[in-house]
Amino acid sequence: MKISTRGRYAFRMMIDLAQHYNEGFIALKDISARQNISKKYLEQIIPFFNRSNLLFANKGHMGGYQLAKHPEKITVREILEIAEGSLAPVSCMDNVPNFCENADRCFTLPVYQGLYKVILDYLDSITLSDVISNKKDNCEYYI
Prior knowledge:
The protein is mainly alpha-helical.
């Protein structure tokens, strides 16, 4: 699994919004400046999140974006699935049930299913609060 630039920038955008959670609506230009991500790129990412339940948008003079939930209620998995789509390690796992004609006799599928479970469990265990406080398992998070 490889996270695309869109996924990495979306994650950074959401971290920035979590860091400024109590400051009201945050303009994309401010996120852009702090994260060193082009505003145009952020404008391409925002539509994915506008269709989710993770952001509130406000237009106008005091417009911008704000997390719709507290940072401790938003997992890294939610963010990456919105930005990336499926996080499955192989394409045949994108559908449930698996439509691959070889699924019932595939020796590799259980390996990929195990990997997928580990990935999802790990990403579900980390919230935006964990990332901004850098407290999850005493790990450091680099993006």
